[in-house]
Amino acid sequence: MTPDTQYRASTFKVEKSPAAWAKALGALPNAHPLQSWTWGQFKARWGWDTIPCLLTIAESSWNPLAAALILKRSVPRSPYSILYVPKGPILNYNDGALRRVVLAELENIAKQENAIFIKIDPDVVKSWGEEAERPSPIGSKFSKELAQRGWRYSAEQIQFRNTVEIDLHQSEDEIMAAMKQKTRYNIRLAGRKGIEIKHGTPADFPAIVKMYEETAVRDNFAIRPTDYYLDAWQSFYDAGMAHPLIATFEDNPIAAVVLIKFDQTVTYMYGASTNEERNRMPTYLLQWEAIRWAKEQGATIYDMWGAPSEFEETDQLWGVWRFKQGFNGQVVRHIGAWDYVNKPLWYWLYTNALPRYTNYLRSRNNK
């Protein structure tokens, strides 16, 4: 049997059992919380349909090869839809034959669902290091395969393409010693200046949302409605995945993070702070306690969730990067989001004409 024929009878099938989905993700490498059943059910309450697909060997009673939580949204006033696989699909990307089967299956699903395009956003490493000094052979190979099959590198990167990871196999002393001197100083300064870190509950979510809104105004980034975050955090919390940490000064909350634990990774997915007491460096101590909590949970990676697309001062995330850089984690660059275009004309309208028209309406309304 040749490598390309061993999966010939394997096809994606819709999985309807949350338990089976969780079991499958647990058996596959590098599963992400945005591929979890919890995230799918949450997105279903916010305008998306979900298509949780598992790829198995036909002869096997249960042997998952790949998983793809596909989000589907109908395009208004048209018979078409768009499909998105956030931080997926999940599979062993070292297996070239399996990669090709999964891509072929996703292309077929795009046609079956009458989609304009399907977007994937897998955590496939392109290179490591701020200067991309260590390229990944698999990342390069998979990117070439995507291009050869007609997939397009997407200008719309929904999730952060790059991130910063801290290896939690190290001891706390080793992690602290590796940080930049100023970061270590600020962590200790926060403790001396009365900053305390407490473990939160869902009762703290409304206060964290207010801090998040204040952060968005200060740092000039767009956010979703308040209820969106309350729903997301409560969903993750109920599933045993979310853990809020709050920095206080004299019992007044001034900064917070919502950590998401999934498999062996804890992700700093949401962070917020007020404009109060910033000279006491609460966010530094907050991050340190988040790292310590992640180690206590048995995680092996602390994902700081987001780094610049280009490591230049003009990048929107440059200020955030300067903060994260002090913790001396490893920069991980991913291949980013790719689109398989099923309806070329509609794809052009959706990705070019429609955004221009929307921007025109916004500018006119602003005037």
Description:
The strands form 2 sheets. Strands 8-7-16-10-15-14-13-12-11 form a 9-stranded mixed beta sheet, sandwiched between helices. Strands 1, 2, 3, 4, 5, 6, 9 and 17 form an 8-stranded mixed beta sheet that branches. It is globular, with a radius of gyration of 22 Å. Helix 6 crosses helix 9 (282-296) and helix 7 crosses helix 8. It folds into 2 domains: 11-154 and 336-366, 3-Layer(aba) Sandwich (Aminopeptidase), CATH 3.40.630.30; 164-333, Gcn5-related N-acetyltransferase (GNAT) (Aminopeptidase), CATH 3.40.630.30. It is built from 11 helices and 17 strands. The protein has 367 residues and is an alpha+beta fold. The mean pLDDT is 93. The termini are far apart. The protein has helices spanning 18-27, 37-44, 96-112, 137-148, 172-178, 181-192, 205-219, 226-238, 282-296, 318-325, 344-366; strands at 11-14, 49-56, 64-74, 81-85, 90-91, 115-120, 125-128, 134-135, 152-153, 162-167, 195-199, 242-249, 252-262, 265-273, 301-303, 330-334, 338-341.
Task: Sum this structure up briefly.
The protein has eleven helices and 17 strands. With 367 residues, it is an alpha+beta fold. The strands form two sheets. A nine-stranded mixed sheet has the order 8-7-16-10-15-14-13-12-11, sandwiched between helices. Strands 1, 2, 3, 4, 5, 6, 9 and 17 form an eight-stranded mixed sheet that branches.
**Spatial strand sequence of the major β-sheet:** 8-7-16-10-15-14-13-12-11
Instruction: Return the string of H and E elements.
Output: EHHEEEEHEEEHEEHHEHHEEEHEHEEH
How much strand?
25-35%
Backbone structural class: alpha+beta
Strand tally? 17
Indicate the CATH topology of the largest domain. Answer: Aminopeptidase
Give the helix level as a range of percent: 25-40%
The total tally of domains equals 2
**Oligomerization:** single chain
CATH class group of the largest domain: Alpha Beta
